[in-house]
Amino acid sequence: MSRLSGLFSSLWSLRSSQEQIPEDVNSLLLHVTFDLSNSKFVENDTTVRIIGARGSGKTSFLYKLYFKYVVGTPDEAFDVMKTENHNVETIEYSGQSYEMWEYAEMANSIPHLLGTNIIVFFLDSVKQSNVNVAEKARENMLWLLTQYAEALSESIIITVANKQDQPDAVSAQDIGDQWMKDAKLRAALQGHHWRIFPCSSTTGSGLDAILQYIHTTRESQILLQFSPPSHRSLPPSSPLPQRERASFSSRLPQGATARPAGQSPLKERFEDVLEDDETLRKKMRHQSLQADFGSTNGKKSLSQARMPITPWEEMPNPYHLSDNDFKAWYDQQRVYLFFDYQSLLRISYIYLRELEYSHERRSEVTRRLLSNLRVILRSIELCEQDAKQASSQESDQRATTEFAHECITYSETQTLFWLHMVSYCLMKHPVLEGEDCSFEQFFVRCPELWDGELWRNYYSYKQFHAERGTLEFLAPDKKPLPNAFKSSSLALKGSGLKIDYQIVS
Ligand SMILES: Nc1nc2c(ncn2[C@@H]2O[C@H](COP(=O)(O)OP(=O)(O)OP(=O)(O)O)[C@@H](O)[C@H]2O)c(=O)[nH]1
Ligand SMILES: [Mg+2]
């Protein structure tokens, strides 16, 4: 320890001679805030600022990195003492040197944070089980991002859920979910590259993933000369309120998505739509890069692309997206974190509403809805498989819970049934001019859709879940579906039950 504390104090004196941190932080803050209006903050491309609660493990993290990447002794045991002001080390990673600063208090770090490229925000995951502590951490992050929104607008934000080696640590997934449930914080983070990583500064687990993310994200940001990522312009979206969630269908047995034997007229329909798994994986990687770095612009080849390290944050929770963003994502066949019953109703509603204003034929829209759904659901499944495989290799069982969301599987019969019911509800509860036309409002108005077992009125279980119905629409075997079309739809008039069947065949 004495060796390290000596090291720290010598570093401190070296740095403090270069960067005078005044005692009166407030006056400095005023000064910096004033300067903001006139200056564009640009700093060393590779500076990383580590902040967070006292005792959360910032110093341990810095020196674990130091021993691993500088000294080359990753298992070196060392003690740390409370940081007086700050510590700094230069860490070499993938041919790039990163100057890493860690600060004792957030207040003394602020003058250095402004305009910084990478902010690493540390949390003690054990203490996150205390709601007040968790809330305080979120408040601090929010305060920083809102107070210095302009100066930090380009900053990559990394949240580190440290001390994951402790049995009572709150998982990174749960902490991330809490952060995303906080509408203000979510809005403040929107537009930043933001990720949360599980980590243990004592065992060193998670260190590589964090460094790799810093490296690839920063590298690409430089390549793209700070061109904003494509999602930056998206407006902050409000989450749907928690409400009773009906279940669409339990996952079909393994292989249910495989083509059934026999000559269904729909059999060839998706031949050109659903690519093989490898192509889908490539596409997902490409999309994740685009989401992360704006556009690859040909500057980064696919062979250089890496799967996201913690893929779930790359994939948006559909509940966090506005209707517009949700649809844009769907149209691009991009992978969501999960796609549940409510998401299906929502996309059905959005597509049907759009139909009212477009010249597109209903059958074309339905076809697009189905083909996109099939690709998206398969992509989610592949991500799930990859994550499970990765977690079993790392023997980190926690990672598998990242995908523990309700997710439907592809079934043409079930999808078209729900599309039909949404269409029916749209007719029964039309959106009047001037009314809020969000899915959220529509759903509130349609109690019919709250019952995930609604299909039982029309179908036997066997028919609704028949394997044959996965890739072709099976008509109800109990009673006809309600008419879901205005009488002006002459071609469809009176066809009630068979309408969707006609559309897809
Ligand atoms: N179990 C466990 N203990 C950790 C971990 N990281 C840090 N610690 C312990 O937590 C205590 C505080 O660690 P520090 O690295 O000093 O934390 P800090 O954020 O730098 O604290 P300040 O300097 O007071 O701001 C020490 O006893 C560390 O050994 C971790 O990942 N797991
Ligand atoms: Mg410290």
From TrEMBL:
Keywords: GTP-binding, Magnesium, Metal-binding, Nucleotide-binding. PROSITE patterns: ARF. Pfam families: Arf (PF00025). The keyword Metal-binding applies. Mg(2+) binds at T59, T83. Signal peptide: none annotated. One of its GO terms (molecular function) is GTPase activity. SUPFAM superfamilies: P-loop containing nucleoside triphosphate hydrolases. The keyword Lipid metabolism does not apply. InterPro entries: P-loop_NTPase (IPR027417), Small_GTPase_ARF (IPR024156), Small_GTPase_ARF/SAR (IPR006689). Residues 227-269 are annotated as: Disordered. SMART domains: ARF. GTP binds at G52, A53, R54, G55, S56, G57, K58, T59, N162, K163, Q164, D165. This is Uncharacterized protein.
